[in-house]
Structure formats: structure tokens, C-alpha cells
User: Fold these one by one.
Assistant:
Number 1:
Amino acid sequence: MSVASGIPDFRSSNGLYATLEATKLTATPEQIERIQSDPSYSLDQHLFMENPLPCLEVNREFILGVRERRWKATLAHRFVECLRTKVKNKEGEGKLVRLYTQNIDGLEDQCEGIGHERRIAVHGSMDEAECATCGARMDFDLFCGMVKSQIKDITGRDPSAPAHSTPIVCESCGAATVKPSIVLFRSRLPEVFFENVPNDVKDIDLLLILGTSLAVAPANSLVMRIPRSSMRVLMNREPVGWHLGLDYDSNDRDYFAQGNCENLALDFMESLGWLEDLKPLLDQGEFPESSATLLREHLERLKKQKLEGQAQKQFQSEIQPQDQPQASTLELKGQEQNNFQSEIQPQDQPQASILELNGQAQNQFQSEIQPQDQPQASTLENRS
């Protein structure tokens, strides 16, 4: 869902792991060597408890970018927002029960009606801070201020960053283990996931699955936990989830919408009549550039189609003079049809076809259009 926002990812060829220069991290030679062989070790729980600085240095730009809203919620995020704000149940509340996300960017917090109440970040979120020792929360703005002033910038892009890093100390327990509220490798998932799943899946009638491989547990277990009567719709580039029981060929509860999340979300919102709600966000610059471009092109195409339809109707009304009969033979009945045909059909040029004439009328018509000196009938038309 967040690809279109431009957030740097971790695992692509030009992502964080591929470009990480481990020697720039504040770490022991042994720790640096292990990070070089496995960059994901920089986000390991055991390493963080020994030395919290590599994790904070690797995530410094990400943490500060989230606070500055450097990245915007995408069309896919806005689609989920509309599911909460535009679709209501009998009590007048949004039908969206919960958004379970494996993303850690917190972009859904920019959307109305979701926030932390309707979102469960399965792998944690970069827009909160907590102590890994005692679990105490730290104000996010305060945490970001400490990250900016105490953690060095290994990318070299921030001239105001300190030359050396110092740990961020917890105000509650005094441990130097405050970090963004993300799930590090070899650590437990947030309890909020396990606490909410049973009740959330109990009565739902539709599960939407957006942009995922469905390879990571336990988030992928939601596919199997919902009632057997519930529909499951995958919006993804390729079909996945066969190992979880999804069957798009023979199961009438499973559907696969192929494509990227942005285009599919836009198509769904157009079909549901929600595009007008996106215009103010577009005017206010609340979309990432790729999403904004896609939306503008879509709106322009719809506007052009509407204008072309109006122009065609206007053209048709102008080229049909009122003194020319507009009715067709299909619209006339009985005597009116006979009168109309006699007016538009010259008497010296019979227009009726053989299929329209019967009996004596057909013989008479054939004798008029077939010269007697040129026999026209074939042997197939004559009978002995």
C-alpha cells in the first residue's frame, strides 16, 4: 500500500539493506562484521539490548521523515479511509472493522476515521516510541527531538546532526533503550494483535487483502480465521494464498483483482462514486506525486468522456431538423405505418423485399422487378 508514497524500503536492490554501510555505524568490530554479512541484524532485538545505536542510526531518516510527514498517504490508504467514512452500518458507524497492516510507516494515521483506534500495526509503527526494557511510552515529538540531536546521520545529508551518537534514556526506568515502536527481529508481536483478532473476525462479511505475499505469520492467519460465509478479495499483482486455502478458480467466496494497489483502489472508488471526495485532498497536496498524477489523469479522462457525451447529444439535436420525420417503421402501428411508408417510398421504385410479401403480393412484386426476357430464378427456386 505504501510503495507509491516513495518511502525507502528495506529489501529491494536499492533499499536500506543493500545500501547500508555498516562501517559507519556505532558498533564493535564483531557487530559490524555480522551486520555486513546480514544487514537485517542491525534491527535485531538482542543487538539492540546490547547496543541500541545501530538501530537508531539506521532508522534516523525514517523516524524524522515520519514526523515531518515527508511521505503522504496513497490512494490505497484513502480507499481504506472511505471504507470507514463512506460505508455505514445500521447504527450509522463506518463498516470498516479494523485495518491490520504489516507496514511500519504509520501513513494510515493521516486518514480520517482510522488512526490508532481502527489500525493494528502487526509489526509495530515508526510513529510511536517506547522503552524496550520497561515498555513505557515516550512522547513521539520528544523522542524525535532527541533522535535529531543525539543520533548521527550515516547518510551525511543532515549538516545539523551530531558527529557521534548517544543513547536515548527512558524517563521511567532510566535504561538507554528507547526506540521507535517497531517489532525488531527475534522479538514478540504486540499483544494488541492477539487481543483483538478473535472479536474482530467474528461477524465480518468481507475481507480485503491488499498488496501482500501472504507469506508472513501470524498476520496471514486472518485469511483462515474469518467465518466460512465471508468473502475474501485479494487486490494484488499476482494470486497468492493457495497454501492458506484461497481458491480463485472453484471457490465462490474468493476473488482475485489483478493489478497494483493504486490502480485497483482508484477503479473501486470510481465504481462506488467516491472520486469527488478525493478532489479536496488533491488540491491541498495531500497525495504523493505518483498518486496525484494518477488521480489527475483519471479525473481528466472522466471529464473528457463527459464533455464528449454532451457534445454528441448537442450535435445530434442540431442535425435533426424538426420538419423531417424522425420516427421509424418500428415506432408506427397499423394505419400510421402504412401512411408513413407510402410517403417515403416512391411508387415507381418498389422497396419491399420478397421476405415481406406473401401470396399474390409476392408474385406481383416479382413480375415487376424481373424482366420477362431474362429468367432470374434458379433451379433451386423452381418446383415440378
Note: The two ends are 79 Å apart (CA to CA).
Number 2:
Amino acid sequence: MAARAGAKTIAKRTTDWEEAAREPLGRGKRPDKGQFRLQVDRQTKRSYATYEAAEEAGLVIKKAHPILHVTVYDAVEGVNKLIALPK
């Protein structure tokens, strides 16, 4: 085999570590603005200002997928309320 004609040098970039440390890695979590949080299988999907709005959204999900565990979490009182299908 023939030897390479010329060697290439690769220059390393310098990084400012303090600036890189301030940037969040990956997806940042958005803060919840509403008091009532809609949870599907213990995963928070969205927050709402009123219980009625969260319950309505939960019923739509529950009607489409009755096997799922749908709850509304009240962040102020710390209480989970289960959403059940109406009989």
C-alpha cells in the first residue's frame, strides 16, 4: 500500500465550560400553570385552571380508551380524583 501524501491536523475547538454548564440538556420541563393536572396511567399530560375542564378532558380520554387509569390531581389539596365512565 502507498503511504498517504500528507498528514492532516485537526484543531480542537475551545469551549467555554461555564456557558455550556448553564444550558439545559435535553428537553426542559415546562412549569405547570394550572392547579388541576390530568394524569393518564400516572403520567401528567396537561394542567388546567378548573376541575371541570380537567374532568371533561379526562372523560374524553376515558371514553376513547376505557382501560386507562385517568385521574385529576389537585396540586393545592394534594388529592387524586379518579375519572370513571358514567353508567
Note: The radius of gyration is 25 Å.
Number 3:
Amino acid sequence: MKKKTFFSSLVLTSIGLVILGTAVANGLQQRAANPKFSKLKTTAVKADKQQKKANKKAKRQLPPAAPVPAFAKKGIDWLVEAQHTSGGWGAGSHAKQQNLDPSKVKLDPATTAFSAMALLRAGHTPTSGTYRDALRKAATFLIETVERYEKPGPRITDITGTQPQAKLGPLVDTTMTTQFLARLLPLLSKKDALRERTDAALDKCLKKLQMSQQQNGSWVAGGWAPVLQSSLGCTALELAQAAGKNIDLKKLDRARKYQQGNFNNKTGKANAAAGAGVELYAFSGAQRASAGQARAARDLVREAKRRGELKADDQVNEENLRKIGVSSDKAKNLANANEAAEAQAKRLSDETLLRGFGNNGGEEFLSYLMTSESLIITGGDTWKQWNSKINSRLSKIQNPNGSWNGHHCISSPVFCTAAVLQCITTDRDAAILIQVADKAADRQDTKDAPKVSSKR
């Protein structure tokens, strides 16, 4: 009796599995037969695979970084000497721009973060490199600054009137500290005493940064050239994303589109309204915001040609991107970014543009830095030409003691030296910059992000 019951159950189970399998197969056939579903699925999978292959290929092609130039090493030595025993640096007061003595200024988070990033880019970490102790002290200074500040709102300090705040914007301490913590976090092991504190401080800064963004994607809240503060905010979100943080992607889209909207692809000119009337500031911010998407467009088309899906002479444009499976909105944004990058590259020999305000200040050095990062991301010979030109330009105006200082607005030798050092060693951060570009290309653009300027 038991054997008969067991046999009957086995037969019924088998029949059930056959019926279930038939239903699943029929369902799959119906979905496959639906042209709309099949096309969408194939397109999405195809585009995703293409992008991943393009990203891997791009990373394999990264050239080795050049050694740190001797004149830059002198600048690094000076910067470390200028660090206070507490681990911080300061740019000084806007009201006392004539004070160029780094030992006689108030310390501020923005300048500390900016200086620490110069050491990171030169190859020093909290656990390795000649200046690991200086970097660890700087990290501790910034983490403690964030931990101690308990007031709500976008700020992380009550210090006001610093040169970076007055010229770039009052939230520059938050944007630059977010950048540094995002760069620092992946370098710390889970056993490092600073790891959890860095992670928590980054989360706190990121929350403040995201909640303070305006609807148009900017962080315009005062400052002489707030377009630069907004550009730094955009980069901070990118670096946080690259560090593994779940940022608000809509806010990152808005940040990029705000910067990109300041540049006219057809005329090659930038709108300097938020840049104190200085085209260079808006130009470099727009260039930095377009770089990741421009590289993504080029890599996708290059890979498609390699696979024979596009002809060898096919251009990087919206039509060809859509042809290889990129969604309409994304294809348009990538193509526009590539068009902008090409137009911007043509302006890099324009001395009227590069002179900025007319003489060098921290704003000019920061703009050069953003252009260097943009060209590392987009790659090609344009970077080599620019790097040779800017290294020659900056080495000629270095002070005998190894520092650089500004002659208007941000005159601080600490801030200016940190900017120059990052500019001339940008290729040493190629891996992280390309990672930022890959993140920009791996997702669909959000529908409710502001549209790119109609001037394009």
C-alpha cells in the first residue's frame, strides 16, 4: 500500500513539473514574440555589455604616470613645511590678501583638504610615502572638524571670510572636504583606526552637500565666482560615487548639466555670468563636467568599430550611438558632451581665455587643474600637448622657495601651491578619474534632470 501511494505521488509530481515547465516555456515564447519587449531587452543588454567592454579596454590603455617633476617635488616639500602642527593649513583672510605667511593665518577645512589632496595625488597616503605622517595628521584634522560640527545646514565650520569662501563660495569647505574624504576612504584598510571615522565623516559631508544643491544643479550661494564652487560640488559627488557611496543620481545629473549649460558648443564660448565675468572659470567647469560622458561616447563607438558594428569612418554622434544600442536620451547627452569636449579642446591655445582675470590667482590655477583632469579623462594627444604647455607655464612662475602665490583674489601661497601641484601631477590620478568617467557612463540619464542649454 505504501509503495503504491509513493508511486502515485511521484507520478503526480512529475506531471506537475511538466505542466509548470510548459507554462514557463509558453510565457517566455510569448514575451520573445513581443517585438517591443524583445527589442528593449536586447538593446539594454547590448548597450550594457558594450559599455563594460569599452570601460575595461580603456583602463588597459592607461599609460604609466610620469615621474613627479623636480620643481614639483620642491613645491611638495614647501607645502608640508607650511602645515601647522595640528595637521591643518589655511589660506588666510579675504580682508588680508597681502599676508602670504602660511604660519600667520587661520586654518580652514577647504585649504586643508585641498592641500591634502595634493599630497595624495603625488603618491603619499596615510600609510605610505615620505609624507604619510603629514597626510594622516591632515586627515585627522578634517575628520575631527566634521565630527565636532553639530549645527544643521550645509556648512562644516563657523569660520567665515576666508579667501576660498569669499571667492569661490561659502560652501567650499564642505565641497573640498567631501572630495578629500572620498579620495581617502578607499585607501584605508578596514583595520585602520581612521576607516570608520572617515566613512562616517564622508556620509555627513555628503548629506550636507546634497541637501544644499539648488534646483538648477548649482551651489550658488555667494562668492565672487560661484561657478567654481558648483564645479567642485559636482566633482565631490563624482568622487563619492567612485568611493562606493550611494549618491542621489538626480543631483549629480543636475550638477553636470548646470556646468555643461554654461558652454555653447557651436560658438565655443562659455557664459561667465556666474564666474565674475571671467570666461576661464565657467569654461573649465563645463569642460570638467563633460569629460566623463565624452570619453564614454568615444569608447562605445571605438568598441563598435572593432566589432564591425560601425564603419571605420563613422563619427561619434547621436545617430551612431543609438545605432549600437544606446538609449535615445543617453545617446543625446553623450553626443552633446563629446561635441563640447571637441570644441573646448580647440580653445586651449587661446591665450585670452587662459589669462583668465588678467593675472594669476588661485582661481586661475584651479581652472587649469580642472582642464588637466578633463583631458586625462578624455585622453588622446590633446592631454600631452596641454600638459607640456601648462608644466612649462607654471614652472616659470614658481617662487624661489618652491611655492606659488596669486596676484589677485586668492593670493594664498598654500592654496595656489596645492592647485598647481595637483595640476602638474594629474596623470598620477588617471585610474580614479577614469573610474569617475566609467560611473558616468554606466547608467541611464534621469528623466527629470534639467535639460542641457538650448545654446548647444
Note: The longest strand covers residues 263-264.
